[in-house]
Amino acid sequence: MTRGVPKGTLTNSDLIKLLRLDANQSKELRRIDLVRLAHEAGLFESDVQREDTLPTTESTLKCYLYSVVDNKTVREKLESYVHMYSLLYTRGSIIANQLAIDTYGNIEVVESIPKYNAITTIATTNVFFDWLDKANSSAKQCFLPERWPSGKVDRDDRIQNVLENENILPALIKLLPAWRDLMTVSGWDNSINRMWVKYFTNLKNHCCVHLYKMTLAYFEKVQLSKESTRSVIIDIFKYGYRRPSISDPDDIDHALYIRNMLGCPYYKTDFEFTSQFMDFVIYMRKHGVGEATYFPLSKMGRKYAYVDLKIAKSLLGEPKQGNFMAMFNLTPESFKARRKELRKRLRKGANKKVAKKWWRTGLSTMKKKSKVCSFETDGVGMSICLKTAVPLYSPPTRFQDNEILESDNPVFIGGDEGRAKIMTCAVSTNPLKQPTKIVFSRRSYYRSTKHKARLLFETSEREKNHGELQNVIQQLSLSPKHTMTSQYVRRVADEHFDVMKREFIVNKERALWRMRLYRMKKRSLDRAAQRIFQAANKRPVVIGVGNAKFAPTGIGEMAVPTTGFNKALARAKYRYHKKSRIIGIDEFRTTMCCCACGEITTAPLVGGDRPSRRLRFCNNCNQQNGKGLRDRDIQAARNMLWCTINLFYGIERPSYLTRPPR
After folding, report:
1. pLDDT in tens, 191-217
2. Distance CA 410, CA 240 (A)
3. Residue 287 within a domain
4. 384: which DSSP letter?
5. Number of CB atoms found within 10 A of residue 279's CB
6. How many helices and strands (H and E) does the chain possess?
7. How far apart are CA 26 and CA 12, in angstroms?
8. What is the pLDDT of residue 25?
9. What is the spatial distance between Cα 295 and Cα 489, in angstroms, rounded to a whole number?
10. What gap in Å lies between CA 492 and CA 472, rounded to an integer?
C-alpha cells in the first residue's frame, strides 16, 4: 500500500533540495527542523503550504456514532457497509489460512518434533514472505477476489485455487454478488488496502506475541540426542553457553542457533519480522506448538470499518462540499456547539435523561488546528483519527516537567499494584500523621463496569431460539480451529453461517456492549485516579508506583486493567496538577517487611493450615502494641511511600528495603 500526501505538500526530499543541503547535513535534521529552516528562508509559497508540510501527531477520539452523525440515511448506509466489511475481512482471513494450509500442509499436534533446519525442513517461506511483504502485494486480493481480474491485473493463481475448492467457502463465496451495488470499485480499493494493512500487522503480532514461551515449548518437544540433558539445553537457550557441559554438541549448537536467530530472546518482545523468523514460527505452528492457526483467523463479528473521503463519496454520493470534516460535521466548532447545547440544557434543570446522555454520548473536545481525514466505525462506536500539526516553534515552559520545589509542599503517595486490589495507595498529607489509605479493588471495578449485566445479556442471547446459538458454539468447540482449521471453517462458513451472521453481525447488541464497556472502563479508571489526586487538595503530588511487571490475571481469576490504570494516572496528572510527578519504585521486600518496624513478616495460617495470601503478621509489632496483623497490600503501599519520600529528598532507601549488591 502506498501512502499519498495532499497536493502542494513538500516532502523531505523537496525540502532538502530547496535548502540545498548535502547528504551529511540532512541526516542530522528532523522534518520539523527542515520545515523551520525553510520557513526562516522564506521558501514556502503560502501559509497553507507550510501548515500542510508540518509533521503531525495522530490521536484517536472515541464516541458513539449517533452522537456525531445525525442523518439516519447516512447511518443506514454505514451500517450496510460495516456488515459487508466485516464479512469480507472474516472471509479474507479464511482464504489466507487456506493458502498457508495448501503451502505447508495441515497442522498436526505431535509429541516429538525434529530439529528445525532452515534448509531441509519447510524451506518455502521465503517465497510466501516476499509475496506478503511486497509493497503492492496481490495478497490483498484475499479480501475481495471478485474485484479482480481488472484491466492488466489478473487474479492471483494461489487465490483462484482456493476459490475453486468447493468444500471451503460455499456460503461466503455465494454471499457477495451485490458488493458493487453498495459502493463503487474506487471506494472498495481504499477499503481493501486498509484491510490488508490491518491484517498484515495482525500477522506480525500473531507470530511475535508469546514467541518466547512458544520457543520454550518447542524445546520441550524437540528431539535431542540426550533426553537427560533437556533442562540444560533449555538453560543454554535462555542464558547462552557459559561453561563446559555434558550435553551433546549438536544439541548445544541447535540451542545456540535458535537463540542467535531470534536475537537472544530472553523476555524480548520486539522481534524483527524476517523470512527466517517467519519460517521458524510456521515450523512450530505446523507441529502444534502454541495451539494457533498459521495466520490470524478472524472470528465472525462486527469489525471497525475504515471510512475516508474516497470511501465516503463512493458510499454516499458526491457531497456538496468536498471537505471530509464538513461532510460528517467533524469540526472543532461542531463539537463545541454540541457540548454547549447539552450543558445549556443541563443548567436549565433538564431531566435525568439529558443528564445521562451527557456522559453516554462520549463527545469530547477537539483542538482548533486538528484535522480529520478518516474514521472507523462498527455502526455503533466511532473512532475518529485526529491529526494535529506540530508547532513550528515550541512554546517556552514555566517549569521543567516533573520539577517540584520543596516550597510547593507536595503530597506523597505510595502505590502498590495488584490483582485482587488493582491499586492500594498510602497517602501522606502531613508527615506528623499516620498515612491514610485509598483502595481500588477488582470488585469495585467490575461493579462499575456492570460485569454481571454483561454476563446476563450473553446468557439470555444464548438461550434465545431454544438455545440455537449455544448449540452452534458447542458444535464449533468440537472442531478446534488450530488443529482442525478446515473443519472449523466449514462449520462457520456453511453449516452455521446464517445463525452466526444474525447473532454476531446483524445484531447490534454486542457492539453496543463493547462501546459501553469501553466507556465504563475508562470512566471507572479515571474516577479511581481522580480520588488519588483529590486527596492532595490541589497540592502537587509525588506518586511512587511499584515497577514490577506481572500478568493481569491468574488461574481462575478475572483480568484487571493494570496498564490501563497507569495510563489513567498519567491523564489525571495533567488534568489536576501539572507539577505532579509519577516515579517507579523497586518493589524489593516491600510486601515482606513490616512497614512500622522493618522486621520480616510471615503469612498467618487461615482455614486450618493454609497460609493466607492477603494478610501478613509481624511478631515484633504484636509484642509491642498488639497490632501485628495487617493487610499485605497496605503494608507494601506504606513501604513504597517511605521509599518515595526518601527518593524525592535524595536519601537512601530504608536499609531493610535495600537490595543487596551482587
Report:
1. 999 999 999 999 988 888 888 888 999
2. 47
3. no
4. E
5. 20
6. 26, 13
7. 9
8. 76
9. 13
10. 9
Domain presence at residue 69: no
Instruction: Say yes or no: 569 and 524 in one domain.
Output: yes
C-beta of residue 604 within 8 angstroms of C-beta of residue 617? yes
- Answer yes or no: do 418 and 492 share one domain: no
Q: What is the pLDDT of residues 539-575, one digit of tens each?
A: 889 999 988 776 667 766 778 888 888 889 988 888 8
pLDDT attached to residue 2: 40
Q: State the distance between the two ends of the chain, measured CA to CA, in whole angstroms.
A: 51
Q: Where are the alpha helices (DSSP H) in 492-631?
A: 497-501, 509-534, 562-576, 619-625
- State the pLDDT at residue 23: 76
Contacts of 317 (CB under 8 A, 6+ apart): none
What DSSP line would sit under 245-291, residue for residue? -SS-HHHHHHHHHHHHHHTS-TT-------HHHHHHHHHHHHTTTTS
Nearest to 402 by CA among 648, 585, 546, 580: 580
Q: Tell me, what's the pLDDT at 1?
A: 36
563 and 634 belong to one structural domain? yes
**Weakly modelled stretches of the chain, pLDDT under 50:** 1-2
Provide the whole-model pTM.
0.87
Instruction: Characterize 314-327 residue by residue with b for buried, 16 or more Cβ atoms within 10 angstroms of its Cβ, and e for exposed.
Output: bbbeeeeeeebbeb
Co-location of 490 and 613 in the same domain = no
Q: Which domain holds residue 494?
A: 451-500
435/535 Cα distance (integer angstroms): 11
pLDDT digits (tens, 9 = 90+) for 125-139: 667 787 887 777 888
Q: Check residue 453 and give its pLDDT.
A: 94
Spatial contact of 62 and 362, defined as CB atoms under 8 Å apart: yes
Residues 542 and 605 in one domain: yes
